[in-house]
Amino acid sequence: MASTPSNRLKLTPSNSPYLPHHVRSPFRSRAPVEPRLSLKRVVGTTCATPTGFDVVNSSFAYIAGGAVVVVDVEGTEYSQRFYRARPTAHPVYGTPALPYSPSTPTTTPKANDSRNRISLRESTYGSHDWSDSPTSSKTWTSRERIKSATCLALSREGRFLAVGETGYAPRVLIFSLEDNSSDTPLVSISEHTCGVKAVAWSPDSKYLASLGSANDGFLYIWRIDTKTGAAKLFQQNRCTSYIYGMTWVGNNLITYGVRHVKVWRVEEGQSVSPVKQKFFGEATSSSQSHQKTLPGRNVLLRNMIEATFSCAVAIDDTKAIICSETGDVCLFDDTDKQMKLTHVLESGFVTTCAAIRGNVVYLGGKSGNITTLDLASFMQCSPDSIRTPMGSFAGLFAMGFLEENMVTVDAKRSIHIWGFDETEGQLDSKSPIPISGHQDAILGVEALSRPNVPGADFYSWSGSGQVILWDAEGKVKCSFQAPLDEACFEDEPDLVNQLTLVRATEGGRFFVTGDKLGVVKIIDFSTLECVSSMRAHASECQFITTFEDKSKFIIATCGRDRTAQLFHKTAEGHFEHFQTLEFAARVIQVLIPSADRVITCSMDRTLQVHDLVTKDGEPDVMAAIPSRTLPLKASPSSMTMGVDGKSLFVSLLDRSICLFDLENGKPANTFKCVDEGGAEPVVLDSLTARPATDREPSFLLGVSNTDKSIRIYDAQTGAFLDREWGHTEAINGVALVEGDDSKRRVVSAGSDGTIMIWELDLQDPAWGSATRDPSPVKDGSAVSRPTLRRVLSKAELAEFQRASPSVGRRSPPRTLLKRKSIYSLSTAASSRTLAAGLQPSPALATAEDTPTRRPSADSRGASPPSSPKSRVKRRPSLPALNSAKTKSTSNLRGFGSLNMATEQACRTLRAYRKKLSSTDPIGQEVLAELDQELRLTAVALGDRATRSKAMSDTMLNGLLDQYSERLVAMLDEKLQMNYRPASDQDPDSPKSPKSPRRRSESSGVDSSSGSTTN
């Protein structure tokens, strides 16, 4: 687990008379990666309770995944601002260490303990000591990055925004609303361990209350500096009940929940003058005595003892309205600190939110009802204070009033801004201002090529069948409902069909959809009619891809039934299924990079390449022929074509990406999907590759559901470029689009119902330069270049032959035999007589090696007789006596020997004869070249026979009959049938090549005559 600096580190202060010892980090130093992605737009919301929504003046805020959206409304127009802090973001102001914290804590601090981190940074330790800390270069773990915003609060004067998070090591963040959008908080508080349930500002904005979740339960009161926003812990206590929310009533804080209403008294103590510290690190006694425990008292519920209180709104400094889930509306009165709760009336529906506008109280329910109450009569505890209902909505989660509008958040995750008539107290329900968003989880997003009719840049879809087309600014262009068939299965009565995939063709002419039942439908966008519907798979459709050019329109799908289906559009305009590809395991993805190729990858760790062919004269008859199967190191998760169209990126489950060259089928590069620290690799999905430009490298875009991040890597080197977070649930897709301003934007969609639009900026004039130290200027000399290396393999060396000397004499090779054992002397005579009949004479061996040498009687007579000891053979070992007969050891000589080359030529000719049975055309020039090579080979074999007496005429004739005559005849027949008809042949040209057999016979006759002459 990554750790951050805390006060348990033993560092040497900067004012020490001794020089600090340099501590070398065990991690390789890396420069901080500049952010390449910046959040520009958030579509949708994750708000489901009143704690995730707040209003002030003419602005309102709501949570959206890991970010907060602040909307400023002016008349009928609105603008949005976004606030989000990265897990590694450093706040402007630090929270000082708690006075009760020990000087040397025994427990390990939290990974993002900002109090300890900033207190060290603001202490007397120098910057050199801080940078040399061995823990400063450590990166955060994956679980530390997954955070989501769960609650927020706006200060009453509209200057500050407080956000509470949940996840590992959650934080309470305070932002300044004076910034348009911000990624840097003013304060980061990390006291809560299991999540933050609610945050609330006091009416004078001097205090901020933060309440932990049920597993945490701590309630902290923070004193806020109204000028800078800095926070300091003032009081704290713990709640043992399950809390739904809290609200300020004057200077008191009220928490409510399951059978719980409690009042916490926040009383300002007398200020104490600070005492100067005598020694470094000594805590003052005044600070310890100044802090007091937050006092609280439970409110007597009486007949409401079993109620669960869901919402509350303050009337003034002593009174508030508290509602329960069952519709009970109660009046809380704290006049003279009596803390009295009175049940006034019942709303008749499940109450989820409440708001006050003037003299009217508005109650919203889960069923979508809004009821108004007369505030004056309600404070008199009159049950007749209920007014007429205002209307019905799609279930309200939160609502609030602006200066001239009312804002509602319904159960469909839709936000509407309603016009409000102050005089009549009625809403303008005819023309609300909607803030776009999907009504449920988003299952995917894809880019839409331009030009298209609606002028959209991308589209997204949800499981209910809703398809929405958006522009690059996040505005809805149009939408339609994809038809879904009902699931009728007796064995699965609860199965509900849903839309899983949507793919659009060029320009958005057709939309191809796939559902959970495996049904593929093709929708004509101009008429929104389904032109074709096919049951492609027996279960859920996993992936759909399309290819369209001027002559072909091909659709490929794959499902969980281990099949891939291929469809195409006929000349008559109908869509037709032409082939099913079956596999041994589930197919993950299918691609159609060109009109003649289909690529699939499956869970059995294989990559399959099929060639698309058509019949001659019948373009509508197509088939996919297996061409190549490439093995993978691990099961794939996603793949995409390279920027050159000849390579393929494959993301594997071993958290790596492999680049394959489709021309030779070999992997060209492999790299791990690591972070900026070179650690914690992840699995990437939804790969997208883009080519390089003048100032941008070619990059690879993908999403990681391991840490819910969007990542960018260099496509050539695999270097990490950037990553960003924002989604709180699974990221179901990512798309790269270009707006009207020619800026690249990355669009991501998640299961949390949000769409985030990021602006991508990879332009860097010094791209590729060293990040740590500047590299020296290269002089271009040979010394600065890398050393040349070209080592030839044995196969390459076998292609070369040693040239025999044309003149001179060469002594026969002499072999040095090992000293034989005396036990083999008894068998020397018999083995010598047997070897004498099989070994050739020295003269013949010399003539074979040197053809120009003439035998001489003097040289034969002058040779001394060999020693008997040198002819003694070594006694064979026992395994050699019992072994079966094997091939001659002459075949096991060097790799470049003539025997090895002959065997290799035979294997090549046999493989070539099998290829001749196919229908592939052969060029005439290639056939002529092959015929010439065969003729020359036959002539060379004949010359070899004249020089070698060891090769008999029968062996030579059989070899030539088997390999030359048959092959030349087949080639001649192929040539005459395809390219050279008999009627078109030139009379001067020969009808058939000369048979190598005749040449061999003639050479054999010459050989025999030559031997007779000799």
The largest sheet has its strands arranged as 10-11-12-13-17
> Count of DSSP E strands?
57
The averaged pLDDT comes out at 77
From the spread of the alpha carbons, the general shape counts as: elongated
Q: Characterize the largest beta sheet: strand count, sense, and whether it forms a barrel.
A: 5 strands, mixed
Counting helices, strands and paired strands, the structural category is alpha+beta
Rg, Cα atoms, Å: 42 Å
How far is the first residue's CA from the last residue's CA? 91 Å
Q: Spans of 5+ residues with little confidence (pLDDT < 50)?
A: 1-31, 100-139, 270-289, 768-785, 802-811, 823-864, 866-895, 985-1014
Strand content: 35-45%
Give a quick rundown of the structure:
By secondary structure, the chain is of the alpha+beta class.
Structural notes for this entry:
The structure is a single chain. The protein is of the alpha+beta class. The chain has a 5-stranded mixed β-sheet, with no helix packed on it. A hairpin with a 3-residue loop joins strand 48 and strand 49 (656-661). Residues 1-31, 100-139, 270-289, 768-785, 802-811, 823-864, 866-895 and 985-1014 have low confidence and may be disordered. Helix 12 (924-947) packs antiparallel against helix 13 (953-978) and helix 12 runs parallel beside helix 14.
